[in-house]
Amino acid sequence: MVKTGKTFILGVLAGISISLGGTVYLLSADKTVGALLFSVGLFCVCVFGFNLFTGKVCYVLDNDAGYARMLPVIWTGNLVGAVCTALLESLTRMGPALAEKAAAASQAKLDQSPLSALILAVFCNIMIYIAVEGYKTIPHELGKYLAILFGVIVFILCGFEHCVANMYYFTMGAAWSWKAAGYLLLMTAGNALGGVAIPLLRKLAKPA
């Protein structure tokens, strides 16, 4: 129970971190600058050891069933962190501007086909895996942080679907509906598939 509680709290912190990245992205006049600054979210997750679903799911094949059972706890923590961040920001002077931009972004996400949402979510987590694995394995400090920057900037500028970021956008944009919930679950599945794609292929490519 203690481990589950800690896992959940670290998930909440990750949800807050990604939401702050989403905040600065929405408020940035320049899309490229916003994509660069969005990386603060994954930076916090990696440096402080927070639990982000899209990062943790990449390593589900390397761990036992207990690890897999913690992923829904992490996802729920991410949701709580994202929703709380959006609700608190809506009470500030930034609220109207954030709500307007988040509503437009959410509408575009919900107007696409389910297949589009799934595929874009898969590609998103391929980039997240590259970013997180790069941070974990590159020996040089500069390389670690460049991995985070490149991974995040590419997925943002390409418009790939990140389930935790969308938790924030849907809340800030008042876009929640049964359709939004269904799309979020679909994007979560896509993120999971994308997260394990490269690790699985790397395992299959290793000599017997």
Written account of the structure:
The chain contains 10 helices and no strands. The chain is globular and about 55 Å long. With 208 residues, it is mainly α. It has one domain (2-205): Up-down Bundle (Glycerol uptake facilitator protein). The chain has helices spanning 2-27, 31-38, 40-48, 53-56, 65-89, 95-111, 114-137, 141-158, 163-172, 178-205.
In brief:
The chain is mainly alpha-helical. It contains ten helices and no strands.
The portion of residues assigned to helices is: over 70%
Number of helices: 10
Number of strands: 0
Q: Find the structural class using helix and strand composition.
A: mainly alpha
Report the uncertain regions.
none
Order of H and E elements: HHHHHHHHHH
Tally of separate domains:
1
The CATH homologous superfamily is called: Glycerol uptake facilitator protein
Overall geometry = globular
Outline the biggest β-sheet. none
Distance between the termini: 40 Å
CATH topology type: Glycerol uptake facilitator protein
Please give the CATH architecture: Up-down Bundle
Strand content: under 5%
Report mean pLDDT, rounded to a whole number.
96
Rg estimate, integer Å: 16 Å
CATH class, anyone?
A: Mainly Alpha
Output the keywords:
single chain, Glycerol uptake facilitator protein, 81% helix, globular, 208 residues
